[in-house]
Amino acid sequence: MKQRIITGVIAAAFFIGITVYGKLPFALVIIALALIGVYELLRMKGISALSAPGLIGFLLTIGFVIPSNWKHVVFLHLSTSEFLMIGLLLLLFVTVASKNSFTFDGVGFVLLSSLYVGYGFYYVYETRMMDHGLSILFFILFMIWGADSGAYFFGKAFGKRKLWPVISPNKTIEGALGGIFVSLVVGFVCYFVHFIHFSWLTVLVMALMAGIFGQIGDLVQSAFKRHYGVKDSGNILPGHGGILDRMDSWLFVLPLLHVLHLLS
């Protein structure tokens, strides 16, 4: 527990500081986090980071996560769909060059991992770069963290009925409802103290989405780990696991809020 607290304090201080500063350092940190996240998924699957599929996966992730205004410089005016197609063709070529030791299943895994992690972290960056993006990003993160804490403490205190035992044996329905409740409380506290300037209806919808889809993101990560037989996605954060263990909820909530235009 001591190690977990120390790691949490150091990681939080670093992330808050770099997020408040923003600009190029924040963009580079987000790209680094995305690359670590994809590395963790590749490692679960048993794909070497230095193999052809691994390197293509990293390249794809960079293409999805880098800021929009960098893409034309880094990728020579290729559109996202053209870039994705090139990555797909390269991966399919590897299946032939490897004499099918790298299969079509692996192609799908690398593509989906790059999309899932790359775009997830891309929307973290895009949120920070919006007008009032600093307060908006922390508003969303406060609700996600509130939902996570609420699910844990309500589950410990009142949990009886298992939520999804095949995926995550310790999660309960009572804990999940408690997480949604705390997300709503955090959202409306931010609303009433004027931390953000959304309407009460938008705050309600965003808090529900943070509470519900944040927990779904956590379940998705649990499903990955259970399928591949690992306890944590990585060990970069002693006492906490990997990057995806700590940020899995972000990768669901932030893209959804942008796609549904709730932040505009």
TrEMBL record:
EC number: 2.7.7.41
Transmembrane segments: 6-39, 46-66, 72-94, 106-124, 136-154, 175-194, 200-220
Keyword hit for Cell inner membrane: no
Keyword vocabulary terms for this entry: Cell membrane, Lipid biosynthesis, Lipid metabolism, Membrane, Nucleotidyltransferase, Phospholipid biosynthesis, Phospholipid metabolism, Transferase, Transmembrane, Transmembrane helix
Pfam families recorded: CTP_transf_1
Pathway: Phospholipid metabolism; CDP-diacylglycerol biosynthesis; CDP-diacylglycerol from sn-glycerol 3-phosphate: step 3/3; Lipid metabolism
PROSITE patterns cross-referenced by the UniProt entry: CDS
Compartments (UniProt record): Cell membrane
GO biological process: CDP-diacylglycerol biosynthetic process
GO cellular component: plasma membrane
Reaction catalysed by this enzyme: a 1,2-diacyl-sn-glycero-3-phosphate + CTP + H(+) = a CDP-1,2-diacyl-sn-glycerol + diphosphate
Its membrane topology: Multi-pass membrane protein
Top EC class of this enzyme: transferase
Source species, domain of life: Bacteria
One term of GO molecular function: phosphatidate cytidylyltransferase activity
Family (UniProt): Belongs to the CDS family.
Protein known as: Phosphatidate cytidylyltransferase
